[in-house]
Amino acid sequence: MNMALSNERIQQKLTEKFGEAVYGFEEPYGLLSFETAKENNLKVMQFLYDDAELGFHFLTDLCAVNYPDQPGRELAVVYHLHNLSENIRLRMKVFTGIQTPDVYTATSLFSSANWMERETYDFFGVNFVGHPNLKRILNVDEMDYFPLRKEYPLEDQTRIDKDDEMFGRG
Amino acid sequence: MTEQHHHIKLPEGSIEKQTTTLNMGPTHPATHGVFQNIMELDGERVVSADSTVGYIHRAFEKIAERRPLYQITPLTDRLNYCSSPINNMGWHHTCEKLLGVQTPKRVDYLRIIIMELARIADHLICNSIVGVDTGAYTGFLYVMQYRELIYEIYEEVCGSRLTTNIGRIGGFERNFTDTAFKKIEKFLTEYPKVLKEFENLFARNRIFMERTMGTGGISAERALNYGFTGPNLRAAGVDYDVRIHAPYSSYQDFDFTIPVGKTGDNYDRFLVRNEEMWQSLSLIQQAYHKIQDMKGTEADVYHADVPEYYLPKKEDVYTKMEALIWHFKIIMGEVDMPKGEVYHSVEGGNGELGFYLISDGGRAPFRLHFRRPCFIYYQAYPELVKGGMLSDAIVTMSSLNLIAGEMDA
After folding, report:
1. Who among A63, A89, A110 is closest to B369 (CB)?
2. Which residues of chain B form CATH 1.10.645.10?
3. How confident is the model at residue A163 (pLDDT cuts 50, 70, 90)?
């Protein structure tokens, strides 16, 4: 019988295996959160999946975040993984520059990553290397930008039929 | 079956094909929502299917980046609109987690009543639609009366029916009225008989069983790999339920069981949803009694004390300086939220509905991502229907409980 898996134990196992390559451990609201270089995302996830004690077999969520003020680290891809039998979650982040937003796909490990990565590509332009069918999913195919990036303001700035002064935006 | 090729004289230059392409959707009565399936058929067998979604994408995640927390609640209504209150409550819980708000027990129990009513409404639609698609229309029309009663309860509590915007951060906008409790009582006394009758109509009905057993099945392993959650995952035999695994809203105070299936096929999905409705009924009953047993000041509480986020009563706004200030600050969006990153999930009508909220300390979220269960599990559809009959593919689609609003965000 294994000891119940705890945040400390996961962190310990990860540091034993990857050393300096996993870093930025935090526990916001009790959820273990850490970072790794984008080249290592698959290796770390594979380890989390294969290791008998860790057993993170469930990809709860995959999405991206755009931080325009961090040069070279403008895009973060965030994975939420869940070990259902021990009932413990963790959050893994990889950062990438916006010029070459290439991140390895997780589709070989999780079939569920397929559409989630397509969605992330659709809205943030993250290029998931090795994805079997990386094309837009919710937006129209003809769209030529990635709308959830911060550089695109919410409203269509090309509109001229609104007097900004009237709306307190003058 | 022997291979037969019917040679029809095709016009010059045509490409000869052995299969037929069938375009189902985006607006097809059998999809029960706006999404498209392009199926390749060999006779009546499905060779492959390709899904297109996104027809009602409304950019909720982008809109949310400009809105204060309380204005995001109406956006969540429009995800899974068959059970809006669960989405609303999930969002309130997420905000409360970020802000560190403790809700009183009575609020938790009132929320459970509303959420479980919503679950019943959701499952009721899904199961009766499976009935419609297998040729039994009566059940659908019959149970609609009780969804109507559920909607009347919502209406009594918050004023609206489908897109409810129910509750506020910290609790409810007003206390439940006596009429609301009367309607809940009426539901608790009348619905069990109806559900029993509905169950009798299908559960051991030979036509229904033969249509649904062994079709659209998935193994537990594949279901997990595809990110299934909710009744669809439980039908495949995995007892994962957010209400048990990460209790919110005091679900830990209640006695209920999590039904699981075995084969993950359409029949098991039907049975799991059916049993969950019984469990929800029991939860509502327990919560109702817990509330009735409360005494003193505890028996009147309907929101937590969070003046920074909870709108004061209108009469107080007119008569008390403090209330007027808070009212102004909340409406003008001058209350900044703390910095932080929160992931919170609730057991929605069709699976784990998650909210990933990043706050940079401003008035609106820096980033908000919705984990929409049916967007994630719908990608398994081609695998589920491959090799089966077209008519089974239709039943599979309705038994997955796909809601276009949730899929497309």
Report:
1. A63
2. 60-408
3. low
CB contact under 8 Å between A154 and B65, yes or no, is yes
Q: Between A and B, how many CB-CB pairs are < 8 A?
A: 87
Are A47 and A38 in contact by the 8 Å Cβ rule? The answer is: no
Q: How far is B99 from chain A (nearest CA, A)?
A: 11
Rounded to two decimals, the pTM is 0.90
Distances B296 to B50, B66, B299 between C-alpha atoms, Å: 59, 42, 6
Whether the CB of A33 is below 8 Å from some CB of chain B: the reply is yes
CATH 3.40.50.150 fits A7-152, yes or no: no
Q: Look at residue B32 and tell me whether its pLDDT is greater than 90.
A: no
Under a CB-based contact definition with an 8 Å cutoff, are residues A126 and A96 in contact? yes
Whether the predicted pLDDT of A50 surpasses 70: yes
Which residue, among A146, A121, A124, A144, has the nearest Cα to A134 in the 3D structure? Answer: A121
What order do you get walking across the sheet with B45-52 strand by strand? B20-24, B36-42, B45-52
Q: Which fold has domain B60-408?
A: Cytochrome-c3 Hydrogenase; chain B (1.10.645)
Q: Is the dihedral of CA B371, B377, B382, B383 positive or negative?
A: positive
pLDDT at position B1, please?
A: 44
Cβ of B181 under 8 Å from any chain A Cβ?
no
Q: What residue in A sits closest to B229 (Cα-Cα)?
A: A60
DSSP string, A119-147: HHHHHH--EEET-TT---SSS-TT--S-T
Is residue B386 within 8 angstroms of chain A, CB to CB?
A: no
By CA distance, what is B352's nearest residue in A? A60
A25 and chain B in contact, CB less than 8 A: no
Give B241-290 pLDDT, tens digit per residue. 999 999 999 999 999 999 999 999 999 999 999 999 999 999 999 999 99
Q: Where are the alpha helices (DSSP H) in A19-124?
A: 41-50, 113-124
* CA B327 remoteness from chain centre: 32
Q: How far is A15 from chain B (nearest CA, A)?
A: 23
Residue B208: both structure tokens together? 């229904």
* ipTM entry: 0.89
pLDDT in tens, B168-199: 999 998 899 999 999 999 999 999 999 999 99
Query: Where do the domains of chain A lie?
Result: 7-152
Phi, psi of B323 (to 5 degrees): -65, -40
Distance between CA A117 and CA B226 in Å, rounded? 13
% of chain A exceeding 70 in pLDDT = 89
According to the model, what pLDDT value does residue B10 have? Answer: 67
